UniProtKB/TrEMBL annotation:
The lineage of its organism: Eukaryota, Fungi, Dikarya, Ascomycota, Pezizomycotina. Belongs to the cytochrome P450 family. Its cofactor is heme. This is Cytochrome P450. It comes from the Eukaryota. It comes from Aspergillus nanangensis.
Length: 501
């Protein structure tokens, strides 16, 4: 007679074998039968998201995807349900009006309230963007030039202090302080004073938040698993929202306390409040306003700061490029006491080229921005991508296409002297279409004002610990240098030299 143990043993092995068989069947069907089986890509990625997850976890996703494009071509499968495209003909199709954002963006929320970036369909995002865009229009921003220059003066003061002490400036931190102060002032009329306090708490919270969004968005199981394991990472990720919210709440309270007449201009909060008064049913709730403020403080400070920092690093590594920029600035503003007005700065071709090369090689959000293929699917580079497929592009790859940008890894500002239509089309630091960045004008303005002022007065070179290796990108939706610092010496050019660089 069979023992009870033998029966259980048989059942257990039968269950296990069935489980393994079913798992293998699922994997095989993903590989051989799925509607994406015609799309090339790494073998394992065809039936598992593990390679993508592994790379994302280590901040290497963007390099890994580019490498797969080199091996498999312009349309590739990077996970069982995800396709990445690297050809020009995909840009308008993927980032046009017909595609929605994928569920991965649902992570961009504060509690249960979605931020603009987290709204999936073009229609609801359009509604929200309508409230935000006027404050970021060029016309509105040009009036803010003195506000930007005011904060820049504090930044320049610190450069002087560091120069006198003969110590390097951690550009990673200090550019963030600057852009945070600018964006808080322009958007909410609030002087937060990061530049006064050397308070890196906010920066740390943004890092946590970026990491959470980049991982928990596409792989939503991560946060629950980390919480189950009682990991500190989960704790930091959860707390980051509340910490950033504190800055937004503080700014909103400050704004509410100030009387109308104390506000010299119509900022974004004024516009949102106005919309709420005129149309209480469609206006944003208090919580939605806080969520939007958090988004603006985060998206608006981190990105511009990164570009300015990487541009300074590139110039520090390339004395001839730095010299050419200083020469252009000197010729445009021969009198060192003359104010460097935006109107003139914007017309300087070399400065423009420096900003563009900074954005091309160090796009702050260089990664795969995921959309969902619309009903009827998409035909891109001769490849059919069925409806419902998650599909995206990464500016990182397009920005390094050698047929569009010869010598793609070189920082060549002159290449923007008469750019080809292909160069313009493939330049995607702010993404494209109806969900492109709303802060584009503010970012472009700041880059020209900041870099123009800095290189009119200063020469920049790297401290010993700042090297290509230490500045290698790590990507968690946004990029940062691997070392988490960027120590640069900013040396004031002597008055005599300022007259003739
Ligand atoms: C160099 C600076 C900047 C770069 C390179 C940049 C880049 C981007 C990119 C690539 C997106 C699209 C993200 C996606 O589709 O997933 C985006 C969206 C966005 N950006 Fe920026 N950004 C910059 C500065 C700013 C500033 C200064 C602000 C505001 C003050 C801002 C606010 C936003 C918002 C609200 C969105 C979401 C738009 C939507 O989903 O409809 N950004 N940005």
């Amino acid at each position: 007679m069979l023992g009870l143990g033998t029966v259980y043993g048989d059942w257990a092995s039968l269950t296990l074998s069935s489980f393994v068989f079913l798992a293998l069947l699922t994997l095989a069907s993903r590989y051989f039968l799925g509607s994406l089986k015609h799309i090339p890509g790494p073998f394992v990625a065809k039936f598992s998201s593990l390679p993508l997850f592994y790379q994302a976890w280590h901040g290497n996703r963007v390099f890994w995807i580019m490498e797969q494009h080199r091996r498999y071509g312009p349309v590739i499968r990077i996970a069982p349900d995800k396709v990445c495209v690297a050809s020009s003909d995909g840009i308008k199709k993927i980032y046009g009006t017909k595609t929605a954002k994928s569920e991965a963006y649902s992570t961009f929320r504060y509690h249960d309230v979605k931020m603009c970036i987290g709204l999936l369909d073009v229609k609801s995002a359009h509604q929200r963007r309508k409230g935000l865009l006027p404050a970021f229009s060029r016309q509105n921003l040009v009036e803010m030039e003195p506000v930007i220059r005011g904060h820049l003066q504090s930044f320049l003061h610190w450069l002087q202090v560091f120069d006198r002490r003969n110590v390097p400036v951690d550009a990673f931190k200090w550019f963030r302080y600057l852009t945070f102060d600018v964006v808080a002032d322009i958007s909410f009329g609030q002087k937060i004073g990061m530049l006064d306090g050397d308070d890196s708490h906010f920066i740390q919270q943004v890092e946590y938040r970026n990491k959470r969004n980049s991982l928990n968005g596409p792989f939503p199981f991560i946060l629950p698993v980390l919480r189950l394991l009682r990991s500190d990472t989960a704790k930091h990720w959860m707390e980051a929202d509340e910490e950033i919210a504190k800055y937004a709440i503080r700014a909103k309270e400050g704004w509410s306390k100030s009387e109308n007449q104390d506000r010299p201009r119509v900022d974004i909060l004024a516009r949102l409040e106005e919309a709420r008064t005129l149309n209480p049913e469609n206006g944003l709730s208090d919580k939605e306003i806080i969520a939007e403020m958090m988004e603006i403080l985060n998206a608006g400070s981190d990105t511009t700061a990164n570009t300015a920092m990487f541009a300074c690093f590139e110039l520090a590594c390339r004395p001839e490029v730095q010299k050419a920029l200083q020469q252009e600035l000197h010729d445009a503003f021969p009198d060192p006491t003359e104010p460097l007005l935006l109107e003139k700065l914007e017309r300087l071709p070399y400065l423009d080229g420096v900003c563009r090369e900074g954005l091309r090689l160090h796009a702050p959000i260089p990664s795969y921005l995921e959309r969902v293929a619309p009903p009827g699917g998409l035909e891109i580079s001769g490849c059919f991508i069925p409806a419902g497929t998650k599909v995206g592009m990464q500016s990182y790859t397009n920005h390094r296409n050698p047929t569009v940008y010869p010598q793609p890894e070189e920082f060549i500002p002159d290449r923007w002297n008469g750019p080809t239509p292909e160069m313009k089309l493939n330049f995607l630091p702010f993404s494209a279409g109806p969900r492109a960045c709303i802060g584009l004008n503010l970012a472009n303005m700041q880059l020209r004002i900041h870099l123009g002022h800095i290189f009119r007065k200063y020469s920049v070179h790297c401290a010993e610990d700042t090297t290509r290796a230490s500045m290698r990108h790590v990507e968690f939706f946004a990029i940062r240098p691997k070392s988490g610092t960027c120590n640069l010496y900013f040396r004031q050019i002597e008055q005599q030299e300022q007259k003739c660089v």
